[in-house]
Amino acid sequence: MSKLTRRGFAALAAAGGAGAAALAQQPTREITAASVPGDPIAPGPQEGTLPEEEPFRGPLHFTRQDVTPRVQPFAGTDVRLLPGRFLDTQQINEAVLRRIPAERLLHTFRLNVGLPSSAQPLGGWEKPDSEVRGCFASQFLTASAHMYASTGDEDIKAKADSMVSGMAECQARLRGGYLSAFPIELFDRLNARREVWAPFYTIHKVMAGLLDMYQMCGNKQALETALGVARWADTWTAAIPEEHMQAVLDTEYGGMNEVLYSLAAVTGDNKLAEVGDRFTKKRFFNPLALSCDRLRGLHTNTHIPQVTGAARRYEISGDPRFRDVAEFFWNQVTGARCYATGGTSNNEGWLTNPHRLAAELGRGEATTECCCAYNMLKLTRKLYGWSADPRYFDYYERVLYNHRLGTINLETGATQYYLGVVPGSWRAFNSEWDSFWCCTSTGVEEYSKLNDSIYFHDEEGLYVNLFIPSEVTWGAKGARIRQETQFPEVPSTTLRVSCDKPARMTLYIRVPAWVAGAAGVKVNGRVAEISGGPGSYIRIDRTWNSGDRVEMEMPMRLRREAMPDDPAIQAVLYGPLLLAGQFGRDGLTRELAIGPMGPQLKKAPPAVIPSLAADESIQPAGGPLAFRATGAQVTLVPFNQVTDQRYTVYWRVS
Ligand SMILES: [Zn+2]
Fold first, then answer.
1. Which of 98, 117, 248, 288 could share a disulfide with 110, CB 3.0–4.6 Å?
2. How far apart are CA 101 and CA 496, in angstroms?
3. How far apart are CA 237 and CA 230, in angstroms?
4. SS (HEC) of 601-621
């Protein structure tokens, strides 16, 4: 770990502003285990003993051997969202992408190479003296590429194309392929192990943005520019002895390994994968490959992208060590380190040993950074492709509905940094021009690709994983599937098939693990002799004709989930939805809701939150997803519908 976390730098950059205030907060609330002074993610003792074996000892050797995925996602261009909340979300994000001028995004890139720019600088993490400037601008390319694939919006593409040529112009003025909005001197500091924020983290975003512009918008200049940066990264890392490079990797570097492996896959140039191998942080991977959780004390969002890189390495080499790393990490984080939202991290780190979430929750209010949820979804989608195991989508759905849907403001398009799960929290959103945090960047990416995991396919079958109004076109089968649903307000979905001529295919429809009983299925109005138990797929293999339709009912029920280390702290869920109690806006000023990176609980009066009885009666309360806890006298609604009130998702149970 570097001495300062990403948020620590943010706090310094905020020069005493909201970020710094957030850092200083420690909660004093009913659900509190302990508060820790000093470094919020200082490591503590790890559980168990670490085997002496080191799967990642010695040099890595790359041989290209592609692993055939079990299933693959449809391209963004094949899936269109239909009216509903997901489309509303995509559209407000599209408006955000449209209103940020390209010249403002390119401003610091141009200044860095001595080109004139009269654009008004952006603020926050993009401002001209920020050490991660250029990050948002680069992730804007990824977001634009996804948005173009999702919508066909030519204006979005044209602006992103103009940014690619603007960035290429800057690269041409620098030596060796280097391209950044900050001077190369930051890499001298990185190499000398002097204090610096996260230079390779930013370079990863530059390369990924360019690669996405090539892959989704066909921009060849973007690929050439990305390969130039890869050449520079090769030269820089080749000069550094392995042992010292391992020390350099202590500074956050995003998914440098992943983007280099992806470039190797696209170009067939194995040399790029060898450069990617230099970004293997062996001290982190070794325990994971041995199924050993040494995550305590690590900065969460520094490490998730490294694991996605490991997953990519497995896909193009078949090396099982990398698969072991990715699968154990995913199982451990989702099974032992995620709150009821599916989000992970507190104070940006994993602060405790596994299965100690109540203790971790007591250590701070800066819970579940949005980037972590975003990056876990990316990793989940990849791992699902290897196995088509529906449990990956139980997690994906949980994060999508309970973390991601609520973290964008549907009126402004602003997004969140920390999603608070400490009782009494509220949602704090970025300001329009003075935030540009990491989570603002992953936010514009996330909401540009809400179509990307609804459907997967193999040679013969189509997999329906999420219940989102949408239409998928499967060119190879000459078929289109239109999904009409009001899920989750109505717990069912309808799939309508249209095809040029009768089409043989298998339809796999996911039956979520939360379904109460069995899912009921009708084909063309008739009850089918198939039913799927929770956590499986319903499989319908037939020759489909235009007009065929499948309906599936997914009964929901209320249930509680207790903290693994404190059964008296519980969350209430209905189907896939985490429910929240709302407690008004007392003390919530505009300053507390717009600009800070998360809720600052000491700045508002204590929220009075009732406890629930162990046998609390929770009854439907009028609206389709509203409930009333009759003893506690509180109304529960889906957490993703809570926009501007203080809330709790965790209850003390008496
Ligand atoms: Zn973030």
1. 117
2. 41
3. 10
4. HHHCCCCCCCCECCCCCEEEC
CA–centroid distance, residue 439 to ligand 1 (Å)? 4
Nearest one of 469, 358, 449 to 396, comparing CA atoms:
449
Contact 202, 134 (CB under 8 A): yes
265 CA to middle of ligand 1, Å? Answer: 28
Kindly report, residue by residue over 532-583, the tens digit of the pLDDT: 899 999 999 999 999 999 999 999 999 999 999 999 999 999 999 999 999 9
Distance separating alpha carbons of residues 574 and 556, to the nearest angstrom = 6
- Tell me the CA–centroid distance for residue 103 and ligand 1, in Å: 24
CA distance 632 to 608: 12
CA distance 96 to 99: 5
CA of 638 to the centre of ligand 1 (A): 24
- What's the 138 CA to ligand 1 centre distance in angstroms? 15
C-alpha distances in angstroms, 79 versus 75, 225, 464, 559, 635?
Answer: 7, 29, 12, 33, 37
CA of 258 to the centre of ligand 1 (A): 18
345: left (phi over 0), alpha (psi -120 to 50) or beta: left
Task: Give the tens place of pLDDT for each residue, 398-451.
Answer: 999 999 999 999 999 999 999 999 999 999 999 999 999 999 999 999 999 999
Name residue, tokens 């890189």.
309
pLDDT beyond 60 at 390: yes
* Ligand 1 center from residue 443 Cα (angstroms): 9
3-state helix, strand, coil in the chain (%, to 5): 40, 15, 45
Distance 320 CA to ligand 1 centre (A): 30
Distance CA 200, CA 445 (A): 19
Ligand 1: centre distance to CA 597 (Å): 10
Sheet holding 549-553, edge to edge: 79-81, 470-474, 479-484, 492-499, 549-553, 520-523, 526-527
b/e string for 181-196 if b means 16 or more Cβ within 10 A? bbeeebbeebbeeeeb
State residue 6's pLDDT score.
52
d(CA 577, CA 575) in angstroms, rounded, equals 6
Distance from Cα 531 to the centre of ligand 1, integer Å: 41
Residue 562, beta-bridge partner list: 570
CA atoms within 13 A on the CB side of 290: 18
Distance CA 367, CA 353 (A): 16
17 vs 52: CA distance, rounded Å: 46
- pLDDT tens readout for residues 436-470: 999 999 999 999 999 999 999 999 999 999 999 99
Report how far ligand 1's centroid is from the alpha carbon of 277 (Å).
25
- pLDDT score of 341: 98
Which residue is associated with the tokens 């956050």? 252
